[in-house]
Structures are given as C-alpha cells and as structure tokens.
Target: Sel1 repeat family protein
Amino acid sequence: MLRSFLLIALAFCLFHLSARAQLSGKTYAETKREQANAQYNKNYIEGTKYNRNTPSRSSGKVDDEAARALAEKFRHNAGKGPAAAPKVEAPKPTAEQLELQKQEADRKQREDYQRAQAAYQRQQSKQEREAARKAARVEYFTEMKAIGLTEGEAWCFAINAIPTDADRDAEWNWNVRKKLSALKDAYTRFTAARATGTYVELAALAETFKIAGYSYLKAQQFLATRFPEKTAETERAQLVGLFYFYSGTFERHPIYTEAQYANRTPAQVAELEALFLELYTRHPEAALQSCATAEGMSPVHSLYSKAKEKGDRDAQLRLAELGFRIPERGYKWKDACREFPHHLTNLTGYLEGKPAAYWIEVGKAQGRDAATVIADRGDQLIEIEKAVVKGGKPQIDADIDEVFLERWMPSLQKLAAAGDPSGLNALGVLSFGGKIRRSGRKEAIAYWQQAAAAGYYPAHLNLLRYTAAGLKDAPDKTTVMQEFLAYTSQATPQQLYKIARALVDGSQGDQEQELKELGKVLGQGAAAKGVQEAKEYYKFK
Model:
C-alpha cells in the first residue's frame, strides 16, 4: 500500500515538472541555470554597491573576475563588506607629556590675549589722538576766525597746523607752523594799522598773509581805495589772492589752500569770476597765471562749465581760448586743462586755419614751444621735438602717423616759414624719420642747424644724438659739441637745468649713457648756480 502511494507521488512530481518545462518552453537544466544566474546577479549587486569604484556592469574579463571575487566575499559575509582591520589603540600620553601640552596651550592663549590687548590699546590710542587733534583744530579755527579771516581760511589753516597725516616730517610741520604764526601776526597788525599805515608798510604786511586768498584780495582792494595811485599794483596783487583762493601753491613746504575753495560760498565764487574777467582785460598775463593752480581749479574752469550747461557756444569758445592759454605748471595741468584744447580741436577747421602767430602766442602763454602746442592738444603727447638713434636707425615718435601729418603738417610748415625755431626743429624731426621724404637726413641736419642757431636747445640735442651715433652724413662731432657747450655757457641757470633734465631723462638709444653723463654734469652746474630743483634732483647727485 505504502509502496503504491510513493510511486503515485513520484509520478505526479515528474508530471508537474515536465508540464512547467513544456509551458515555459525551457528544459529543466535551462531553468536551473537561470535560477543560478539570478542568484549570482543578486550577490554581484549586493557586493558592488559597497564599492562604487567597481563597475556595476562587467566590461571585460578582468572586470568580471574582480566582480565575482567581490561578490563572493560579500556573499560569504552576509553583505556586510570585508571584515574591519583590528583597531590599534594609541598609547596614552604620559603625565609629563600632558603637562607640556597644557603649558603650550596656555602660552598660545597668553600670546593671543596680548596681541588682542595691544591691538585694542593701539586703537584706543589712535582714537584719543584723533579726538585731541579735532579739539586742537577747533581751537585753532576759533583763533583764526577771531582775527577776521573767513571760515574757509580759518579751517584751511587749522588742518594745515594740525595735520592728519602723521608721515609729514618734522621740518615740514615746523615750517608750516612758523608761516601760520607769521600770517596771524601780520593780519592782526594790518587790521590795526590799516587807517594810519603807509602803503609800503601795509603792502609788506599783506604779502605775509597772501595765502589767505580772499582776505588778501580784500586787503588789496582796500589799499587800492586808500592809495589810488597804486591801483595797477593792487590789481595784480588781487590776482595773487585769487590764485590762492582757487587752491594753488607751489612753494617748498607749502601750506595747501584747496580747503579755501572747497569751503567757498556761491557769493564768493560769483564775485571772483566777475573780478577775473575784469582784471583780465587789463592784466591778461597775470590773470592767466592766477589760473595755473596746484589742483587745477580756476575761474575759467567754473565759467566754462556754466557756459556749457547753458549751451552758450560763443561763451564756450571765448573761455576755451582763455583756458587754452593757462600756463603749464604742475603735474595736474594736463588733466585740468585738457577740455579746452579738446573743444577747439573738435571745431572742424578752426585750429587748422590759424596762422603761425596764433601758435606762437599760445605757446608763449603756456610756457611751451609753439610746435609742442600743436602736437599736444589733449590726451596724447606726441614728442615732435625729439629724434633718437637705436641700432644705427633713426626713430621718432610712433604716434606721428598719416592722420596727424595730414591735419597738422601745414601748421608746422607755417611755423617753420615764419622762422619759429620749434617749427624748424619739428620739420627736422619729421625729415629724419622719413615722414617728408623717404631719406631726409640732410634736410634734417639743415633744419636743426637753423633752429640751433636761433637758440633752440632741443635742436642742439638732436644734433648731439645724430653725431654721437656716428651716422653717415652726420656733421663733425667736435664742432657740434663745441657749439652746444658755447650755447650752454650763455644759458641761464634755469635753462641749464631744463637742458640737463632733457639729457638725463630723455636720452635713449645709441650712446644713451654718454649723453646722460653729459646731462648730469650740466645738472650739477645748475645746482652750483643756485637752482634748488637741481640741488634736490637725485639723478644729478
């Protein structure tokens, strides 16, 4: 009975498995292989998910072997990854080591505290000094205001007497305080003696406080009323007061006066603009000199800006012509005055039609050569006065291009035709650089010799460079040097200083060192003749 039951059960199982294989279309062996593969893939995925550096899909035999090995490792470790390496405990520090660590931490803490405390004390000290400085300025301002100076002047002198800049040297501070003490005394004495003093006495006192621009100007107007015979002198002195009001000093150890203009009132500005226009009609040169201030501020600038805002073209043109004549003085001159030549240059054909006399007159007013004025009308300085030799080849300013030549060559030719030495020298430079004709060295020498004979030192320097380089067709070197030394022997000390600076700062190319040494000797000669700038210029030492 039992045997029959077992046979029936076995037959049923075989029938069931055969049916499943027939239904799936797979044999028993294929089904078992598929199940084995599914289990392998499960183990593979379980293994690789802990290591993202292993490919999740095999891409070659090496990858397959690595994946199988990793999967096998994870399969035997229940998917928990490889067993961790046993921990090695670090030895516990000794009592001595712990004490040293504590001492080091305490030292660092003390140093940090000391640094923080020192920084705090420095800040406190700085604040205390600044508070004391402000209090001293207020006191000084009150004293200056009490003697009758304007608020702008009093504040200007207070910040000069008690400067914020701690780097200003002791000598400078001493000189400033000495000048301000003399100014205060002179203004007080002038006020006391104005009704009884003589013109000479009062004018001398006023000269001492001239840096108080507006008050000095008013003092000169008083003198003009009391001494009408001195009107011309007092009017020129009023322009000096206007100069200081608008910021400008160029003295050694100067008292900067820009704070006077910064604290101006509208009424003061309107008064001084009208006064400038009036005095310009009688003293044009002195009026333009008063506009050459250290900070580049002047009544011409403010009047031009107002005319521009109103759209008054006629007034703009008149004021641009005035501004174009402001003398070159100080490093801020070019930036301060560039708007005036810009205005005139942008008027099509306006400057191109001017005669040689116009450029000569503008150059005289600016204190520059006429040819330089033509070449430098704004953003770009073209060195029209200099030629150099490098590697035996002539070179001139690369900015002298066809556009420049087409527009400004006729003006330079007008200057040369009028006998102006800067124009002759400029044509020599252009000839030397092949801008007039391809090879113009002989013409260059002729132009430079004419300009040098007229006493134009840049032409002498161009001849020196030419002969020093030993170029073909160059004049005799000894003769050129003798003529140059004869010229310098007749030059004023200030002219000698300018020539020396041109050689020391402007020499380039072949024989550069030789020419710089010559400039150094001339600079020392200018210093010996009392030129302060030459004494102080480091390249002459």
About this structure: The chain is about 70% helix and 0% strand. The first strand starts at residue 388 and ends at 390. Residues 12-24, 49-60 have pLDDT under 50 and may be disordered.
